[in-house]
Amino acid sequence: MSAFSTARQKMVDGQVRTNDVTDLRIIDAMAELPREEFVPENQRALAYLDRDLDVTSGGTKRFLIKPMLTAKLLQAAEIVNTDNVLIVGCATGYAAALAAKLAWKVTATESDAALVARGTEILNRLGLGGNVTFQVAEAAIGAPREAPYDVIMLNGATEMIPEQLYGQLKDGGRLVGVFATIRPSRAMIVTHSHHDFGNRALFDAAAPVLPGLEQRPAFVF
What we know:
alpha/beta, Rossmann fold, 9 strands
């Protein structure tokens, strides 16, 4: 067994299973998917640590959020194999690749075109690109042409209510992510039902704020 395979199993056993992730599909996907492929070469040794990993080489920082948080958000979303899924702020595509193992179709958006190119290359190389489409798009805008979605997952936090994303949910759809609109920030699930939206706190969580979902400056007279 390689060092990365050993580290991957330790991540699943020590970070994922111990945090109430019981969906065996997610556990199996995380045990199989080589997270080290989604980070820069000089950070591969850090790929399985319990931390957010910056995958950019300059400019606006973009992260793979902690493995435990990724797993818990995917579990809360309750993705099934007929679902149309949107991953917002996908970075290099790790969360999108996991979702692709669970869903019928995945659209992954990222505002950094270089990361979209890297994510596309990684998933194609791993043979996972068949049901994933990457798009260059701001986080707040989503991907309306592929809507409506059964599931929308934020690969990071939002400091604002992402109303445009809400409008891309199917009736019965759900959005999961970290909401830093409150303190402490919490992972939330938002559900769409009969033209109304309900939300429920899942657990306290912290994640880097996605570019485009930062708090808007208050108007000052």
